[in-house]
Amino acid sequence: MKKIPIKFTINGQQREALVQPNDLLINLLRDELYLTGTKYGCGIGECGACTVFLDDELVLACLILAVTVDGKEITTIEGLARGKELHPMQISFLKNAAVQCGFCTPGMIMTAISLMKENPDPSEEEIREYMRGNICRCTGYTQIIKAIKEYAHSMKG
Amino acid sequence: MSKHKIVGKPIPRYDARAKVTGSLKYADDFILPGMLYGKVLRSIYPAAKILSIDTTEAKRLEGVKAVLTAKDVPNNETVTRFGQSTEVGKGFEGLYRVLADKKVRFMGEAVALVAAETEEIAEQALDLIKVNYEPLPGVFDPEEAMKPGAYLVGESGSNIIGEFGCSQGDVEKGFAESDVIIEDTYRVTFQDHAFMEPESGISWIDDYGVLNIRVSSQVIEHFRDVADVLGIPHNKVRYIGTIMGGGFGGKEDITVESYLALLTWYTKKPVRLVYNRDETFMCHSKRHPFVMKYKVGAKKDGKLVALEAELIGDSGGYPYLSAWVTLYATVNAAGPYVVPNVKVKADVVLTNNTFTSANRGFGAPQPNVAYESIMDELSRKLNIDPVEMRRINCITTGGALSTTGQVFNTYVAFPEAAEKAWEALGEPSDSEDENIKVGRGLAVGLMSYGRMTFLHDTSRCYVKLESDGSVLIRSGIPDLGAGQISLLCQIVAEELGVPMSKIRIYHSDTALTPLAGTTTATRQCYMSGNATLKAAREVRSRILKKAVEILNVNEGNLDIVDENVVVTYDPSQYVSLNKVVKACDTAGIELFCEAQFNAPFTPVPDLSNIRGTTHPDFTFGAQSAEVTVDIETGQVKVNKIVTCYDVGKAINKAAVEGQMEGGSIYGMGYALYEDYQLEKGVPKTLSFAEYRIPSSLDVPEVETILIESGGGLGPYGAKGIGEPACSIIAPALINAVYDAVGVRIKSLPITPDKILKALKEKSL
Amino acid sequence: MHTNTRILANKFEYFAPKSLAEALNLLEQYQEKNIKVLAGGTDLLVKMKTVDLNVDYLMYLKDIAELNFINTSNGLSIGATIPFSHIVKEDRIKTEYTALYEAIQAIAAPAIRNMGTIAGNIGNASPAADTVPALVAFDAQVLIENKQSKRTVLLKDIFLGPGKTLLRPDELITRIEVPQVKPNTGSAFIKKSRVKADLAKINLAVAVQRNGQNCEDCKIVFGSVAATVVRAENTEKLLKGKALTEELISQAAQGVADEIKPIDDIRSTAEYRIAMSREMLRDALNLAWARTYSEAKPNLKGGGE
Lengths: 157, 764, 305
Known about the structure:
- The structure holds three protein chains of three kinds.
- Chain A is an alpha+beta fold.
- Chain A contains five helices and five strands.
- Chain A folds into two domains: 4-79, Beta-grasp domain (Ubiquitin-like (UB roll), Roll); 88-156, Orthogonal Bundle (DNA polymerase, domain 1).
- Chain A has a five-stranded mixed β-sheet with strand order 2-1-5-3-4, covered by helices on one side.
- Chain B is an alpha+beta fold.
- Chain B is built from 18 helices and 30 strands.
- In chain B, the strands form eight sheets. Chain B has a seven-stranded mixed β-sheet, with helices on both faces. In chain B, strands 9-17-16-15-10 form a five-stranded mixed β-sheet, with helices on both faces. A four-stranded mixed β-sheet of chain B has the order 18-26-27-30, with helices on both faces.
- By secondary structure, chain C is an alpha+beta fold.
- The longest helix of chain C is centred in the C-terminal third of the chain and has 24 residues, at 270-293.
- Chains in contact: A-B, A-C, B-C.
- Chain A binds chain C through residues 1, 4, 20-24, 27, 40, 42-46, 48, 51, 57-60, 62-65, 67-68, 111, 114-115, 125, 129-130, 132-134, and chain C through 4-14, 16, 38, 41-42, 45-46, 49-50, 58, 60, 62-63, 85, 108-112, 114-115, 196-197, 301-302.
């Protein structure tokens, strides 16, 4: 099967790659670009561990063909920090003990950031609603919800 | 010692920054040049004879480097040990067969292994392996499997692989004296761990012929078993345990490691093997389903008189840890109650279902469902308030377990925990809709921390103060994601008066770190915490002894605070830690220590009548919940969960609360949603679309109440909390549903379907 | 039997046409060569990973700009590739097509709603699809095209069974057309599921048009209770032209179960689904009826509870 050349922006940087039609975005990120913060949890869009931004919209990298990101912009968890300075959502997760095993954390943070873009002042119910596609087995969500609430609160102030 | 500096504080985890940035390298995030991809061919029948396996075509496929079957495994059948020191006898050790040989015992059992240059080629190779099966009838119900003449799952003459019992008093006499007797059968289902990170690892052979396996495992001591499988000396296998993306007992048995070992051993190349999510569901252990027949008698005043329980557990296709789990269930069968007459009998039985083994709670959550439901019924029958019922019957300090007679000499948090959990529910919510009923439930329980004492458990830790004042820890401790490594750093920070930022820990490497035992049995805070404390205190004492010479003050009046050795009654007198370290270096004083902590050692008990101490200690607690039930749809909504445990001492408060919150929701999933379904041994729920765990939208906020009695056997009086936190929420929810609508669900999960059916039957 | 969800093991040739004409040409050319159409990927790629669905040619639609639209000026015209999340951004969806709004909000989660499409939902023909009952309740039609011709099919007639539609291999769903709702129409979507993000055990969309105190017209459409979506036509007849009294609603609820054919599966039982059809009908009718009077207030909570 012939390989197809694609160009895209990943975390602010232009990249090119040669992909097969059946290559998935998640494996392009993990195996070719070594951006392993995007996790395989289920492969069928049910867990949210592979959530990334594609042209500023949340998507699941396990259900996207790599070839279709040609010309697009992708942001992964690795693209959030500016140098040593973490994204404030990352800091809020740290401060609020919203991280246990950490496997859901990258996807959880990406989704939380998207929520803040769409709805900067969400109620608890709206947070729970928006986050429902990102499953976490460790925390029971209490401290994750708290981290997001606190982030929203700090942005208001 | 003065009051704590960092212990008790909610500090960010050692590993949290690497996790929020996505830079932490889990087992699946590691690659090596020239790496091959491993895959496992699995049985398509739950019970079958393997007549032949033809691997010719698969081997011929370009890019395939190895195709292995049972005949290629030097020691295919071994018993897994989990780092314990004692010989506990066959049947009580997890039988482990690497690849199915002649007979298949559950669907998804590994039959052959492939290593290939790409995952795609490995996948194609699986298709080319021809296995000729003769399907066998199988047996799928443990009660059926116990009957004479039942289909035999294994090679022995009986499917019963473990029989346990304990008793005190005379139950017949007890029931005769009882004013009320409740007799019922409860059933609980398979629960999957549903950790987010699938089983994964990578292996390679190093320059000196040592097989290295970097793997997500709760038990790095399995390196011995892997060496035994290959028939090579133990020192030729090295495990490097990664930070795990959750485990909950599901990474306690060997997962990918023997497969990796075999594939690397045959190809001499690095191999990576990661399970698909459906493989994770089908091919690793589940929580044991139990059928629990209970009979409990009480006096009119509420006092329990007699309890008889018959438990039957489903082990699935192999024993694994079934015997151990069943022992836990036996010990927990009467809960934290004083019952003068008790008789418990427990059997665990092979079937052709998915195998069962360790799962958070390890045999405690199952009987908890039964006895706490019955306690609720008794209190209703006798018209006694649920908290009062626990006041009347719970064990208190100095009391003993009614099953085994093990005595509790440290603080027993009853009735305190029950009172606090119940009170924290506050005023009952109102319902605006007459079809929506509000109900509340309470459950109490106990759960051991630390392994069974007859396993003679130990842990070791190495602490070193470097010449620049930074600190190095080496511990074999595997980190599940619950904060195990962070905890050890915090203990050392406390003892040596240095900030967390100056501590580095090397963990879970069988070649470089002293073995700390398994991250199972809620034992690491207790065992490795104590080993670390012992090592840190030794180094501390050497520092203080040197400081005595410098400051001319008694050692008892010195403390290390913020990297200074300070005179406690006059903080203006101090010497910097750095200076003391230099003085020690000059004098040749060793500022390192490797310490070992031993749990209490007891003999292997008589399993037919278990008496005396089986566990180092227990954690006591209560959970309560408020629910609403819609009588038209049977839909349950959980408004609130309160989790109250005596944690002894919360070393990292945020981590302890996280365990209690997460454990509560893990238990809520078990109670309300989770159901690993099989049809004649064929699993039906092999994805997160089919096996549903709760999302953020399905759960309430969990309120945690920490009792800090200081009575634990861990460092600073800490107790273990990881497993206890999930073990009694199911009965609290059963009781809350009963309170709301007057029907008692006697089999998990509590589905709307069951509630509606029960409501219909009740109204007839 | 084994599946692989980590990779897409299936090798295929890939096309990404930039225009509809190009796409229809390709379908014509490859119609007998096992070609499948990819839009959001949330259904097709899952199937390719988990069941033995082998594809030799895959055509990606999302590069076709002319299919990525929604027009709400006269009824709804929804292009084949516009994702769910863009549809609900249109104010009229919430106010006039409330059941559709609620159905979309009941779908899995935000990322899935950014990816998935209504045309994909229809093409996949899952009996549990959330948007389908709502669209059927609004009399949606599907525009199907091949190189030579176009045809319009009522959405409810497109399904032949689970995973099966009457689409021919050279045909493509290009647009979904929904007529303008009549004045005084109210609608509601209700779903019962194990956890909120799950597939429906049973779902229901109801649209009611009020004339004074009477029910002028109504549509009752269930999902997840038979091989395809089910319109409860007898119950609709019973209600038409009458005042929606509590008594009539009860009568409708009693009868509606005769119109569905649910089964037992891992998510629920037939018995429960039948019981729920009655309760849900009662609730949905009341909710939709109330909405005929006022500016629709959709239920913003997920899961359409």
